Amino acid sequence: MSMITVKNLKKSFGDHEVLKDINAVIEEKEVVCVIGPSGSGKSTFLRCLNKLEDITAGEVVVHGHTITDPKVNINKVRQEVGMVFQHFNLFPHKTVLENITIAPMKVKGADKKAAVDKAMDLLEKVGLKDKAKSYPNQLSGGQKQRVAIARALAMDPKVLLFDEPTSALDPEVVGDVLAVMKQLAVEGMTMIVVTHEMGFAREVGDRVIFMDGGYIVEEDKPEALFGNPQHERTKSFLSKVL
Amino acid sequence: MDTIINAFPYLMDGLQTTLYIFVVAIILGFIIGLIVALFRLSPFKILNFIALVFVNAIRGTPFIVQLFFIYFGLNTLEFISLDRVPAGIITVAINAGAYFSEIIRAGIQSIDKGQTEAARSLGFTGGQNMRFIVLPQAFRRMLPAITNQAIISLKDTSLLSIIGIADIMQRGQVQASATFDPLNVWLIVGIIYFVIIYLLSLLASYAERRFDIK
Fold this sequence. Notes:
The complex is a heterodimer of chains A (242) and B (214). Chain A has 242 residues and is of the alpha/beta class. Chain A has helices at residues 42-48, 74-78, 96-106, 112-125, 141-153, 171-186, 198-204, 222-227, 232-241; strands spanning 4-13, 16-26, 31-35, 57-62, 65-66, 81-84, 159-163, 190-194, 207-212, 215-220. In chain A, the strands form 2 sheets. In chain A, strands 6-7-8-3-9-10 form a 6-stranded mixed beta sheet, with helices on both faces. A 4-stranded antiparallel beta sheet of chain A has the order 2-1-4-5, with helices on one face. In chain A, strand 1 and strand 2 form a beta hairpin. Chain B: It is found in: Cell membrane.
């Protein structure tokens, strides 16, 4: 069974159609990188996968749940779909530890001891165990994003969505965040990554999707898409960013 | 000096009534304000409309008119019988509630959308998001404006003396005419109000520091 199946997805903001007809399948344990110029609809596409955007038309099935069906409880499905944002969106009134434990405790009803133990393990994994008692505003951007990844992982998601996770970071800390993501990929996490990091897409991605103008123009294994792009638009985009 | 010594216990008695009305009314007012704010932000048009009418009706009329409407007006209805103090508490609560609702609405709207998106992406329901993520942050930002409104409401309670509530204001009037020394009586009443409000603002700035986001 595929992790995510998208059929004829359309999304409009008012009269403006951002996603025109998207079809995609993401398999379990696959790492898919979505690239494309700004305004191509790649972030909107990602945000439709956990229904942060209302879906105008089409069908999206995530881990067996048809989220486009209004009868499906989206809050349940979102527990299985972690998301990491460009601007981290950590909760500034909570400590790092509380940022990670609040969802398991309040949403899943986990007990505090178990949630804290798990959070400390996750902090160790992202290399920030010593920051548990800090507040988000005391962290650097790279540290914030690693906490955000730990926060998403605390819900034991089946799939992780990354929305330009390194775009708001200073260049020297991008590597720390990418290293954590790479580790997750190696461990078999299913990931969809909207990114401008072509190096990451090439090295870690199992597949790269190139989007432009609300369509998926081309998708392929990274070496094929970067090495031998088929479409003019892909070629012209890659010639500008590589 | 004699005036002060004789009037003081009597005035303190009135202060108790003032503070009792203030505390109860401000708590009720905050609850009203929160509900009305959530109405204002609700996706349901009818709730927006109710909230908008309420806020504009209260904001657009003087406090004293509201007080007279509730105490003298509503009491003419057969099925309503309101004593002075409950009528006073209701008026202050409703009045403060309308202003609080605008403060709370603005506070909620000032919180970055990304906070809600992060919470919802983790599986929080809309209600849990409000309770655990948005309101605690919004509350910190609202504190100065809430303090301001609380102080205004405390001073508004002095108007309740008009319907015969024995608050510190009414006690002051009695003392001023009984002692023939309005100068000193009103000076004392003024000082008492000042001290209470000063303590209230100290409490508020303590709360602001206590809840400050590090």
